[in-house]
Amino acid sequence: MSIAVPTTLFLLLVFSAQVDPVAAQHQSIVKDGDYVGLEKMPNLTPEDHAASWFHENSLVIRNDEAILDKVPITIRHGKKAYSPADGGS
Prior knowledge:
Elements: H1 4-24, E1 33-40, E2 51-62, E3 65-76, E4 79-82
Antiparallel strand pairs: 1-2, 2-3, 3-4
């Protein structure tokens, strides 16, 4: 019986320590706003060694909702160009 009491107390402490992080997960991790980032893509034009392909990801977060827009782009000699297939030139 003396072993059961410390074990029960230990389990209660462990459980109570895990309750707070679970509650914290329901809070916003990222603030509302507009975020932009580049996601590397495989080279879609192997004949053009100067081109680096990316998805330009635009993420809008508002009121616990998120909208992600992915636009394929190339970067050649430091200049961004949109994919002709996406209506860019």
